[in-house]
Amino acid sequence: MNLLLLSNSASPGAAYLEHAVPVIRQHLAQRRSAIFIPFAGVTQSRDAYTDKVRQALSALNLDITGVHTLDDAPSAIAQTEVIIVGGGNTFNLLKTCREKGLLGPIASAVKKGALYVGWSAGANLACPTIRTTNDMPIVDPVGLDALNLFPLQINPHFTNALPAGHQGETREQRIRELLAVSPELEIIGLPEGNWIEVTDGGARTGGPHSTLVFKANSEAISLPSGHQLS
To answer: CA-CA distance, 80 to 114, in Å (whole number)?
Structure first.
């Protein structure tokens, strides 16, 4: 499988998806037909979201079609070369994909060679479940199971920083809560600007920051960019 799972779409001082274009280009090879899944977007229209992504990735010469415009989306997904899943609200993304019967076709297409590119909620969707999303459950997705294309849980936008005077839990504390009830999990804290790339049966970290791995009853492990994940 070929997966590119990015923490975020926007970086300070950079245009939308600007930091992602070079690494997406590295994974494209000769692929040009792409389907964009905009269902994580809640406060913008699906057409507007698709146009935004199309413009941001224009240098890649992709033929991007919004999945919501297709009469037979499962069949189109089976034939596309690239599946792009945008960020937003992970619960809405999973719910809509489940209702439209797209989870199986997406997983099947990726296992047959389509490149999967997802950021934020799109990265969450590639995991076994969406239990490590940062989003509010604004809708009920009727179960948290997701695509299970990547075997570990990813927490996008990972940071342990808290605003001055803030009394809530840190991100690591929230992750530790999950590990307390599900100690079998391994959770990747993916800082903004970072990504996980899967190719040729292997996975490695990428980006300008260290990536963290959390396991139950042990200290977080800090991995440098380019680290091969077992």
So the answer is: 7
The catalytic site residues sit at 120, 135, 157
> What is the per-residue pLDDT for 182?
98
Confidence of residue 230 (pLDDT cuts 50, 70, 90): confident
pLDDT over 80 at 162, yes or no: yes
Tell the burial category of 56 from Cβ atoms under 10 Å away from its Cβ (0-12, 13-18, 19+). Answer: middle
Query: C-alpha distances in angstroms, 75 versus 67, 95, 108?
Result: 11, 20, 11
Name the H helices within 31-170. 46-56, 73-79, 90-99, 103-111, 121-125
pTM: 0.96
Strand ordering across the sheet containing 153-155:
153-155, 186-189, 211-215, 221-223
- Taking residues 76-91, what's their average pLDDT? 98
CA angle 26, 109, 64 (to 5 degrees): 60
DSSP 67: G
Strands (E), 76-124: 82-85, 115-119
Mean pLDDT (whole number) for 6-16: 94
| Mean per-residue pLDDT over the chain, rounded | 97
Which contiguous run of DSSP H or E holds residue 91? helix 90-99
Task: Please give the Cα distance from 24 to 4 (Å, whole number).
Answer: 7
